[in-house]
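Review the following:
>
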Amino acid sequence: MFGPIAAFESFIFRAFNITGRATRAEYWWVFLAQFLIYCVSISMDIWSVYVHGFDEIGFSGMMTPWLLFLLTVPTLTLTMRRFHDSGRSSFKIAVLMLPVVGAPMFGYFLVAPSEPEKNKWGEPRHPSGRMVSVAPDGTPGKQKHNAFASYAYLVNADAEPSPAMVEQRRAEISDYYRSRVLGEGA
């Protein structure tokens, strides 16, 4: 499951990426944060208009329009990836234009479960039943979580890494950069 930090990381680094998939958790963590940010922003805008008056502040002095300007495209691409994750085309966002039934259908599409297998938009973000953990020797692998391996990693955290471990870590960082920032092979 995506946590809030991974969701924001994906939201930021994949802001202009309309391909791929986004899990429910990934979408709803960002939605919650945006809701709270907009509530604070609107409250601050109302307060500043109340104190200073609209003529003194002007439209460009408010925070909410700037937030809308900055977050509209990343939010739209995240919504498109969320639709892909549930097996729907991103063109179904147009369902919002339908009177009365559009908003409930749109909401249903956002809360629909993810397709567990590969679909035409790619692999699921987190295959069920597999966890990525670190083995006692420091190598990453797909295996069941082992608490003793975590303790072994913590005990050896201050140890000087071997040249092979340094090279492996550089390769991991390079792969991470290519997949998360450049979007290659994602």
